[in-house]
Amino acid sequence: MTGMDQSWPKLHTRHVWLLFILSCLFALPIFLANAPYMDDNARALYGYTWSHSGRIFSTALMNALSLRTHNIPDLAPLGQILGLLALSGSGALLAARLLRGRRMDDLSVCLCALPLAVQPFFLENLSYKFDALPMLMAQTCAVLAALVPEGWSGRRNFATCSAFLFALLCFYQPALNTFLALSVLLFMSDTQQAQDKAAWRGMGLRVGALGVAYAAYHVLIVRHFVGGSYAAPRSETMSLHNMLHGLLWDNVQQAFFLLASLLHGGPGLILCAFYVLGAFCVWSDVLPAMRRRGIIAKLNGVVLVSVPFLLLLLVPGIVLILVNTVLSPRIFMAFSGCVILANLFFIQTAVGQRFRWLAIIPLLYFYVVSFSFGNTMTAQEQFQRAQAERLANQLDDAGFQKGDDLFVYGTEAQAPIVQNAIAGMPYLAELLPRQQISDDALFGYARLRQVGVDSREHTPEEWEAARSLLKPANLVHETPKFAVYRDGTKFALRLTGA
């Protein structure tokens, strides 16, 4: 195909279902575990939504799905299934766009599109019973925003791209990293097809649409919805003063350590080797671009040199410029772009196509990570539930009643099975939900409430002052792993087995 795209790439239904089945197989261990993940415990109890985080489409979608107008129920794995179907459709479109002019066989389609869902960092997104569908819809919007055909009229093209980006921000903001990564890949693809001017027109349109979408989101959503003790501080962007004092560099280092957690041992060497091959595949087009006539072609050749580095920088993406950022695997959705780049050698080169079945090795390893993660999460959930029930029984024996005050100090023990799994796959330490009962955290109180211990959260000052309860005169029960203290209607739980 030559010239600019006049419409969406042709969608092959068979490819959609192939991607959907393989994506569901990747998520199958999560479906089987059926365990609450982080915020899930509190959402299951209180049914609270996402509007205070600026994710109003997430709230609207989940309410509409359950035909409710207030709190949301647990519908897993229906949300993951619907979201994976939507993402598979957009993935098939992406594969058709990246494979333009090449054979659309099943393996090539999978190498181009399957990483949108099948990559280790995305396992956290899939693990949430409540958040998974909105996050999958955000990833889908990121793909569709990047793929808007350039051949449409300017207004239609710009409006459609802006609308998808606005929806993305209202579903889950870090998916913007995926949009930026795919924009880089599509710029690279256009340059490889000698469509130098089209590459810049497409990039200019996407950047312009992003500016409009973000401005609309800031005015319509951020000013009126974002708030609360958690969401508001985490929406603050860095000032020049923050950057000059090293905060940006600190965020970059944290992101690097999280990314490096996946790259250990043999699997890490293979993943890095495949990425280097993909980088050389991109760089092999630098000289042909430089030899074409026109300053734009030569500029494109220079930009191609930076593509592999840009994709790595975009894995944490926009989160790097936040003052109070939380770096976790669910934010690294754009790692999909890195996996797609690593597959280019087996798609675009004659040598790579002869050995292209080797390209499934990283994908197969991602399935190994998924099944290990699912089994470990099941073991951890069973262990934590047993601990919570044991603590609840001891508090009940000590006379704890609804309305009494409970203060928690320390962190619950970790299941031995989890420790062994992390020793074998260090990445799981970042992926698995942390111990729920830990100091005065909401997650711990939600976990305890599920087994009948109903208490409230406290201010940091209240929690610190209540340490006075931890003295021998108030001790009512002690084991090697925990101790229970009581003074009237105030109880303290000290965990010592972590």
From TrEMBL:
Looking at the record's lineage, which domain of life comes first? Bacteria
Instruction: List the keywords (alphabetical).
Output: Membrane, Transmembrane, Transmembrane helix
Q: Which residue ranges traverse the bilayer? A: 16-37, 75-95, 107-123, 164-188, 203-222, 299-323, 329-348, 355-374
Pfam families attached to this UniProt entry: Glucos_trans_II
InterPro entries recorded:
Glucos_trans_II
The name on file for this protein is Glucosyl transferase GtrII
Source organism per entry reads Acetobacter orleanensis
